[in-house]
Description:
Chain A is of the alpha/beta class.
Amino acid sequence: MILSAYELGFRLLNERIRSVNGDVTVYDCFGERFIGAGASSKTIVINGTPGNALGMYLDGATIIVNGNSQDAVGDTMNDGKIIINGNAGDALGYAMRGGIIFVRGDAGYRTGIHMKEYKDKKPVIIIGGCTGSFLGEYLAGGCIIVLGLNTDDYPAGEFTGVGMHGGEIFIRSSKPPVNLPGQVTAGIAGEEDICRIKDDIQEFSEVFNIKTEEIFSKPIYRLVPNGKNPYKRLYMDN
Amino acid sequence: MAVNYFYPDYEIIRDYNRCINCRVCERQCANEAHRYLDDADKMVCDDARCVNCQRCVSVCPTRALKITETSNTFRKNANWSEKTIKEIYRQAESGGVLLSSMGNPENYPVYFDKILINASQVTNPSIDPLREPMETRVFLGAKPDRIQRGKDGRLVSNMPPHITLSMPVMFSAMSYGSVSYNTHESLARAAAELGIMYNTGEGGLHENLYKYGKNTIVQVASGRFGVHKTYLNSCAAVEIKIGQGAKPGIGGHLPGTKIVGDVSKTRMVPEGSDAISPAPHHDIYSIEDLKQLVYSIKEATAYTKPVIVKIAAVHNVSAIASGIARSGTDIIAIDGFRGGTGAAPTRIRDHVGIPIELALASVDKRLRDEGIRNKVSLIAGGSIRSSADVVKAIALGADCVYIGSAALIALGCHLCRSCHTGKCNWGIATQREDLAKRLNPDTGYKRLVNMLTAWQHEIKEMMGGMGINSIESLKGNRLMLRGVGLNEKELEILGIKHAAD
């Protein structure tokens, strides 16, 4: 089904999207929020710029955005796929627990904040460009990959991995990460590590038509936390 | 200072004339305070391990045990209490932030105890709830601004989603993880039998308890543990936790040692990994952002569930509540500074936040002054200890109250304030199987039902005494309250007169 979002407002638009059984294509999208909130089994294609909280609590559906997206994409997402053919705003994949988010361009601050994993649920975020500060803050699980395909500089901002206590962050860069917090260790990703993310990178390269040789043309650093109980020694029983 | 020994705060007194060496105290004490000496055929104890939870006293078949406060004392000092000095020693030794549990035990005023309830004499007859119908049912949620009628003149139902309770009391949020499965099951079954709600807290909802969904409030907190679409749709209402009375402004850390088995499965975090709830929600930095989270939940539940926003009672609580009431939130829960917790830094618990009585009265007034009181219902929590506190809270403007500590006490808690150790001898705040099984949900839920059935009758008696036969007529009815020993400002904030005024 093809829908125009023009002057519908988010509530009506989302009601219509929810009521459709099959796939939906939305055009004239200008900042309508909550598109695909909790959606589980369809493909939603959006032409334009969806508003905040795109694919919040997403539960298995696929969302493709032909354009940029705003803040809180895939917030508390449980399963499914979000593909952004452009840039994304802040707090992308906040508290995400499963599924995949691909962003072709840049993402804002706090990308993948407090993402977590559980058993077979292992969320993956791949950013083709750069991210702002606080990348992977409080990261508890899953995998964030920042490729920096549009820069020769280091592609993440300040304070990467603060409070990180699980998961892993991969950063493709010719310059090594600096100013990492004490509880995070960084090093060049080993063959085994690359093997683990190869399938996701392959899919990313196919989705956006980017050559894998280009992706692997620079060193990839891997950031992991030193322990999963970062605050264990903070307290004293009283 | 090399000597780190503190004389224990409590002494275990054993009457050896009564002790029969049955060793039940030894088996029942997870803190290992009791020990049997084979050679001497004698029970001995280590007072230093005792947290004064009264478990051994309660199970001793010959009543041979009692726990007393020690008479050992530091040199008396009105400024430097022994407690303060010991806390410094502990921090000097460990470098750690002091960690405590349950509600603020310090000697701040309890306003509920300075408020008295009215009764009818001569001019307005009192009502006997044993003979006449009394309504204690409440409906929580936004109320429409006006009555709508269709073209045919018939009423158009424009009631936003709400929850219906048989009485104005609900069990407040206690997560599975901070309390045991049996505690959650007891709360859920009691809520179902009583026609009220219990609250999952932020630890997710155990799969066995989905069947109590009609009586469940699910919580969405900053860690978003166990939050997914099915969870959001398996309840009567969704609560966004912004703050908690025991620890306003800070988040929570459930230590990896408590993330075991089903707790891990329900929270959907790996075993042994810390579950960290950051202090803020990272998608909320303003009322507009809160509105976004509220509406994201409404979208994910197709506008079928009321959304509650829970905040701690802090200095500007009425301005904050006014903002929240404009965010599309249906119900605001305010948690006073005496509210309980499974673990909080001592300094925060004991020094941050304000009393619920003042916060509630202030919020209710502010919302009425601004003409938006109908947009939200108010829930008051943070040490509601009895049916009298419930009646006073309702008369101060609450639609309903949350009880946490009182419910745990009904289940056996003796307020030893050691939840954070995870060794609760009463099977409540623990994940140790041998301890958790001491709380039998079959008896636990009945005790909760008993307590609240008694409260409900007491509420009816008090209402009847005032000549009121519906809880709605008591709501915000401050003429039914009088203060004793309160100053002008306190009376002004509470919106009540002094006794005999």
